Automatic annotation (TrEMBL):
Coiled coil: none annotated. This is Signal peptidase I. It comes from Candidatus Enterococcus ferrettii. Belongs to the peptidase S26 family. PROSITE patterns: SPASE_I_2 (PS00760), SPASE_I_3 (PS00761). InterPro entries: LexA/Signal_pep-like_sf (IPR036286), Pept_S26A_signal_pept_1 (IPR000223), Pept_S26A_signal_pept_1_CS (IPR019758), Pept_S26A_signal_pept_1_Lys-AS (IPR019757), Peptidase_S26 (IPR019533).
Amino acid sequence: MNPTFLEQELVQVKAHHKPKRFDVVVLHPPNDPDALYLKRVVGLPGEKIDFANGQLFINEELIADKFSHETERFDWDDRYDQPIPPKYYFVLGDNRAISKDSRIFGLVSEKQILGIVEEGNK
């Protein structure tokens, strides 16, 4: 999650609730249930996510995302055949060039999210 959070940085985690777009969450990734990742929630249940020309589109509507310029092209329909199901989220790391996130391990269930990180607690 560099540059937002540094390696080994301590963070404060709020109690779990339904994350909102751009919340940073602590989660167990689907492909490694013992690991802990910090990722930013980009897609919410019922949505389709696309990145084109350095811009984020949700359900074909342009959405401001300060990290979208670092995100390679992503076409929802190339990977999924329906919108994000209920109780699932699409997450991305802030260092998108090297992040292991939903583009690699898929959607994250609400049960895999341990809490929401309180940003700006340095």
